[in-house]
Amino acid sequence: MHSIEMVGGIARNWWLWLIRGIVAILFGVLALRWPGDTLVVIGLLFGAYALVDGILAIVATIRAAETHRRWWPLLLEGIVGILIAAITFWDVRITLFALYFTIAAWAFITGVLEIVAAIHLRPHLTNEFWLIVGGIASILFGVLMIWYPLAGALALVWLISAYAIVFGILMIAFSLRLRGHAAASTVESTR
Question: Which of 27, 51, 116, 129 is most buried, taking the most CB atoms under 10 A from its CB?
């Protein structure tokens, strides 16, 4: 029963998820619009997105608290978003530098771990070769980002843009699902 009530509380605020999705898509499209001009614009757009997303998460926190639902994860998400935005606006280079090298390190480490996993899965799984190929691709991507930072930066812009657009589409789809749930719940409660 508790889960049903929680879903109902989230469903009543479906529009927050819709706004998050729209903002994410706008961020992704604007980032695609200016990939070669400057990464600073992308960094500032990210900062603005993190700020708006953080504020919306705090609004969702307040809504969740009003219905006596678990609210602290949303509050933490909102605080982190606002802090990241503040750091970005203070010095956008910090965010760009950290993001760029975090992605490079993540790609490299993930690739190594995928290869290790494939080797361990070999006795239990056929075609583990694809996991090895994925691991090699991840390692190469990480190395190329370090070796060719300008090309890597442009690729990073495209990856961030694609992620934001896909995330936005998924959030909009989720919001529409929540809206349908909220409408169905309203019809049920009026019977």
Answer: 27
Based on the structure, what is the number of domains in the chain? 1
The C-alpha atoms of residue 112 and residue 84 are separated, in whole angstroms, by 29
Residue 75 has pLDDT above 80, yes or no: yes
Q: How far is CA 56 from CA 2, 42, 137, in A?
A: 24, 21, 36
Here the tokens at position 135 are 């691991």
At how many degrees (to 10) do helices 129-147 and 92-121 cross? 150
Q: What is the pLDDT of residue 1?
A: 44
Task: Report the C-alpha gap between 159 and 64 in whole angstroms.
Answer: 33
Using an 8 Å Cβ cutoff, are 168 and 22 in contact?
yes
d(CA 142, CA 140): 5
pLDDT digits (tens, 9 = 90+) for 99-135: 788 888 988 998 899 898 888 877 776 777 888 888 8
Range of 142's domain? 2-190
